[in-house]
Specification:
The chain is an alpha+beta fold. It has a domain of 48 residues. It contains 2 helices and 4 strands, in the order αββββα. The strands form 2 sheets. It has a two-stranded antiparallel ribbon. Strands 2-3 form a two-stranded antiparallel ribbon. It is extended. The relative contact order is 0.17. The mean pLDDT is 87.
């Protein structure tokens, strides 16, 4: 599975579609109230689902992003993947 994933990521990198990949820790919650800043390190008890890694791809359409996700899921098998559009200066 990891060999196949490596090939897939290489393909996305060579095509210029893959912008970034990485892993995420348990998170830190930062809250401001009454001029005070409170920092609370995770993990948080109410977290039922955790994001453990991510990939940022730059594609022309939502459909293309869904197709890349379909191919990713085919490598990993069953599971859930969330997709978010990232807005930047050119899309804001």
């Amino acid at each position: 599975m990891y060999t196949e994933l490596g090939h897939y990521l290489d393909e996305l990198t060579r095509s210029g579609v893959l912008v970034a990949t990485g892993g995420l820790d348990a998170g830190t919650r930062i809250t401001t109230s009454g001029g005070e800043l409170t920092v609370t390190d995770g993990p948080f008890a109410e977290t039922k689902e955790a994001i453990v890694s991510f990939a940022v791809v730059e594609v022309a359409s939502r459909e293309e992003a869904i197709e890349l996700t379909r191919r990713f899921q085919a490598i990993f098998g069953e599971g859930r993947t969330m997709m978010y559009q990232v807005f930047g200066p050119a899309t804001a």
